[in-house]
Amino acid sequence: MSLSNKLLAQMRAATRSLMRRGPSVARTVMRESIKTASSMHPAAKQKAASNQMSFDPVSDMLADLSRIGQSVNPFNVPPLSTGAAAIGLPGHFIDGSFTTDAGTRDYKLYVPSTYAGQPSPLLVMLHGCTQNPDDFALGTGMNVLAEEWNCLVLYPAQSQQANAHRCWNWFNAIDQKRDQGEPSIIAGMTRDIMARYVVDPQQVYVAGLSAGGAMSAIMGTLYPELYAAVGVHSGLPFAAAHDLPTAMAAMKGDFRRPKSGKVRELPIIVFHGDQDTTVHPANGDELIRRRRRHAAEQVAVEPGQVAGGHAYTRTVHRHPDGTIHAEHWLVHGFGHAWSGGDARGSYTDGKGPDASREMMRFFRTRR
After folding, report:
1. Same domain for 106 and 55
2. Which of 31-35, 185-189, 295-299 has the lowest mean pLDDT?
């Protein structure tokens, strides 16, 4: 394709301005410009066909644009996304990226329409293996709840470079240490959002599913001053493994216990299916067991049933003053999925109790 220097200069200028709207938008507009230019100059098509190996400055710019889209976003406020999880919602679903010495991770942030600069809660949601922020947001429905509760929701994204299946590396020793590995990236990303938006530091929470649930337990253990409460769905306790073989054993219920004797100081809510064959439900029991318990702690067991769905047992642990410090929801006949989730997302079962709503309710009572 042969284009005039003037047109190339116009396209470069357009690229610079469009980058503020995101690389995907810029690529689309540039391709439309190329299509228009080609239709205006049919002779250019013939020349290109006869010289396929010649240098194509437009393709080169598109390649550069793709690489720019993979790097750290240079702008203070990331571009808006048109992801499926934001369709029909009045808030903004924003793309971003964060870098530390431990690495770079992309993220998506849902800012509800009710946010107007007032101190607001922040929930960090860590997806499971093979998932991504759009999929996880859609399946859990957390963006819908964010509108109800005026809560910002941050979805860090695991990269395929860090894990081929996009699993958070909860089983690596380096990723179980404060200010190292993936915990340092997630904590840094959390602080970065707190600096960009007006977030109530007493209302910052972390939750996740499966590998993301295991990483949530790690984050709550390593950063109790940053997070006010933890939600773990179908996950594993802190330091349950130190490599792949021990990770496989832990997922079957044969988990390690940390030598340091770390106990969880933070309030925690746990969801797990009693028929989960991916992560044994004994892990949910262990998450609740690893807490600093008060001698006069009160425990209540409350059976329940979702209309037309699964039965469950909710075990509530209260301090002597009546405040709830931990909840364990064991969903009967339930496998490895987000309870009460939207079928449009992966790993969901809509016939279970609404884990998203219950977690949000639990978190908001931590104030």
Report:
1. no
2. 31-35
Q: How far apart are CA 120 and CA 198, in angstroms?
A: 6
Taking the whole predicted model, whether its pTM rises above 0.90 is answered as: no
Query: What does each C-alpha distance from 274 to 24, 234, 288, 354, 360 come to in angstroms?
Result: 42, 10, 15, 16, 23
Return d(Cα 342, Cα 141) in angstroms, integer: 7
Q: Residues 189, 116: one domain?
A: yes
- Strand (E) or helix (H) holding 97: strand 92-100
Asked if residue 199 and residue 64 are part of one domain, the reply reads no
Residue that the structure tokens 């997630």 belong to? 186
Helix, strand or coil, per DSSP, at residue 141: coil
The SS3 of residue 127 is coil
Kindly report the number of other CB atoms within 10 A of residue 188's CB atom: 17
Distance of CA 334 to the CA centre of its chain: 23
Report which secondary-structure segment, H or E, holds 331: strand 324-331
pLDDT tier, 26 (very low <50, low <70, confident <90, very high otherwise): very low
The total domain count for the chain is 2
Going from the C-alpha of 75 to that of each of 66, 78, 305, 324, 338, the distances in angstroms are: 16, 6, 48, 42, 34
For residues 173 and 141, the answer to whether their CB atoms sit within 8 Å is no
- At residue 155, the 3 state secondary structure works out as strand
Amino acid at 244: L
